[in-house]
Design goal:
Helices cover about 25% and strands about 25% of the residues. The protein is of the alpha/beta class. The chain has 4 domains: about 1-120, DnaJ domain (Helix Hairpins, Orthogonal Bundle), CATH 1.10.287.110; about 130-160 and about 220-265, HSP40/DNAj peptide-binding domain, CATH 2.60.260; about 170-205, no CATH class; about 270-410, HSP40/DNAj peptide-binding domain (Sandwich), CATH 2.60.260. Helix 2 (about 30-40) runs antiparallel to helix 3 and helix 3 runs antiparallel to helix 5.
């Protein structure tokens, strides 16, 4: 999932669907059917409108691809542009060429193009910079604003990136302004031709007089600066999500500054394990509690508390799950995932035969203080759910087996 600054609301990203005459919820089959119908009608060889044909083709090339469609739905054409400019898995050039002659005027502006012209490739854009930001699970649950301080090169304001006091550059005498040098070596009857970047001007083709070098940047055209990024952590963000800051990387004369991509890294939580939109909590109880009932308080990620209990006569088995609906992570649609409690039972090492009849009195819980009902905690109900059902629900979130959990939490995970 990508989060782009200044992105459009998803409700506004309907233009490609309108071009094909389908709804946002249309299936692939419906999109393909609409494309074939429209393309057949507007094909130039059949007397159709060439511009409309290009629009239909361009819209179909995006909406038929699940990944591009998802990015377009969330972030519009701006998101697709970002993906193509270094986010990985970019769009083929011919798609943008279709945009050039096919889409309405405001779309050309989105891609820095104008009707009837190809994209301007004369100005290079800097390489994107990836930054990893570790975020606690609490901030992913509640949302937060973080600030990230980064060092960057900034074009010198005194010489405006020329490196020269007078801002007047001379043609390099070594390469005659080409920025490259050619050296020919005669090796007997053969010639060896070597080419490379001019060492005098470092490929710029320009030079500066020694008494005209800028005193601020010392002729380097850039100075060291600082960049403070304000990062919005949205509720429900996931590990690996990316937030894009356009053209905020190092500046350099003659090129467009690269983007900064902040990738979210989820910080391991001491109690909860996140599985997609769901939370898993391991709770250790005594054998007495598993047989005779127990109640305990759970401190949530927003610091509020809930009280859960089992009834006497309801037996809790080792590795049994209970589900608390709507107490998981926030979702994009405003709802919440669920919380799953996995119980671990502590068994006594040995019980003498003569006191088996006094079993309940013997098995005094070492955590009996937890069983006192907390008047500040909200009492919620737990639903019965089988381990098979839980694993089926969590499989899509890479929930595998107990061994994986034990690696995460070898000592068990008693509540706070």
């Amino acid at each position: 999932m990508f989060n782009f600054s200044n992105n459009n609301s998803s409700s506004q990203n309907n233009e490609l669907y309108d071009i094909l005459g389908v709804s946002r919820n249309a299936t692939k089959k419906e999109i393909t059917k609409a494309f074939r119908k429209g393309a057949l009608k507007e094909h130039p060889d059949r007397g159709g409108n060439e511009e409309e044909f290009k629009k239909i083709t361009g819209a179909y090339e995006i909406l038929k691809d699940d990944e591009k469609r998802e990015i377009y739905n969330k972030h519009g054409l701006e998101g697709l542009k970002a993906q193509n400019n270094g986010m990985g898995g970019g769009m083929p050039r011919d798609i943008f060429d279709l945009f050039t002659n096919g889409f309405p005027g405001h779309m050309f502006n989105e891609f820095n193009m104008h009707p009837g012209a190809r994209r301007n490739n004369s100005i290079r854009k800097g390489t994107p910079v990836n930054v990893e930001l570790e975020v606690p699970l609490e901030q992913m649950y509640l949302g937060a604003v973080r600030k990230l301080r980064l060092k960057k090169n900034i074009i010198c304001s005194l010489c405006e990136g020329t490196g020269s006091k007078s801002k007047k550059l001379l043609k390099c005498n070594t390469c005659n302004g080409s920025g490259r040098f050619t050296q020919i070596r005669q090796m007997g009857p053969m010639r060896q031709v070597m080419q490379g970047v001019c060492p005098a001007c470092r490929g710029k083709g320009k030079s500066i007089k020694s008494d005209d070098i800028c005193g601020k940047c010392k002729g380097k055209t850039v100075v060291k600066g600082e960049n403070i990024l304000k990062i919005e952590i949205k509720k429900g963000m996931k590990h690996g999500d990316a937030i894009l800051f356009r053209e905020e990387s190092d500046q350099e004369p003659g090129i467009i500054a690269g983007d900064i991509i902040v990738r979210i890294k989820e910080k391991k939580h001491p109690h909860f394990i996140r599985k997609g939109d769901n939370l898993v909590l391991k709770k250790t109880i005594s054998l007495r509690e598993s047989l005779c009932g127990c109640n305990f308080t759970i401190k949530l990620l927003d610091n509020s508390k809930i009280l859960v209990k089992t009834e006497k006569g309801e037996i809790i088995k080792p590795s049994q799950f209970k589900k608390i609906s709507n107490y998981g992570m926030p979702k994009e649609d405003g709802s919440s995932g669920d919380m799953y409690i996995k119980f671990r039972i502590i068994f006594p090492n040995k019980i003498e035969k003569k006191i088996i009849t006094k079993l309940e009195k013997m098995l005094i819980s070492s955590s009996s203080s937890e069983n006192i009902e907390n008047p500040d905690a909200l009492l919620v109900e737990m639903d019965n759910i089988s381990s098979a059902e839980v694993k089926q629900i969590l499989d899509g979130n890479h929930y595998t087996n107990d061994e994986e959990e034990d690696i995460y939490d070898q000592e068990g995970c008693p509540i706070q």
